[in-house]
Protein: Short subunit dehydrogenase
Organism: Pseudonocardia adelaidensis
Amino acid sequence: MRLTFLAARPGYVAWAMTNALRLELAPRGISITALHVGYVDTDMVAHLDVPKSDPATIAALALDGVRDGALEVVADDVSRSVCSGLSGELSVLYPQLTVAGSAR
């Protein structure tokens, strides 16, 4: 649970900022498609021994999402896990709020 919480924190900030920007720009007819992706197989992460997505696949998913007017493109399992954690119960997102395993 702690790893989900740590991964969700920066994801939540980006998600909240994207939504705020969406609300700001919508009256001007500007839409935003957010791309959520974990590691992409690039030189920058070549040294990491973790699952990585193919850059061409991610680019295609992103372009399809923009073309289709999607609000979000959740491109891989890592991102799906983080996004699902963002909508979780507070005790999952913030385990420090629980006392001896039970929420107050």
Notes: The chain has one domain: 2-103. Helices lie at 2-25, 55-68, 77-86, 90-93. The beta strands are 34-36, 72-74, 98-99, 102-103. The longest strand covers residues 34-36.
